[in-house]
Amino acid sequence: METITNNSKETQKLGEDFAKEIKEGGMVCLSGDLGAGKTTFAQGLLKGLGCSGPFTSPTFTIVKEYKVESIKYKAYHMDCYRIKKEDMINLGWKEIIAEPKNIVIIEWAKRIKNIIPQKAIWIKFEWIDEEKRRITFN
Ligand code: ADP
Ligand code: MG
Fold it and tell me: Which class does domain 2-137 fall in?
């Protein structure tokens, strides 16, 4: 499924609506270049899950953990831009993915693709112009 968003608000709303698809747990891998809208979508998704902000980008922190109010599990927003899979393993990857009810959102997941479970959902972000993005779900 493919959607075009016309501004960042629409991408955020798409993320917010996507929360209902993943609220029982799972992994969402967001791929696409810098500025394609991955963080914007993730912020909407975290909001849709009922997490409390601020939803700052995990570019520097690598892993940000949020409590999901409606369930007793957690949401994780990760950014693999600066790291290798060994780093992610050291950051508690195994424990995080061992709980199927956790919600794991990963930017730049291709950098650690060898450790991404088969059942992960992939969403591709493409820059069309200043305000338009193509977002493809598989
Ligand atoms: P990424 O995490 O993929 O690097 P970000 O979400 O951090 O991307 O940045 C996207 C940038 O593009 C933001 O500055 C945002 O305001 C802008 N933008 C413009 N149009 C859109 C759109 N349709 N969807 C998402 N972001 C958009
Ligand atoms: Mg980002």
Answer: alpha beta
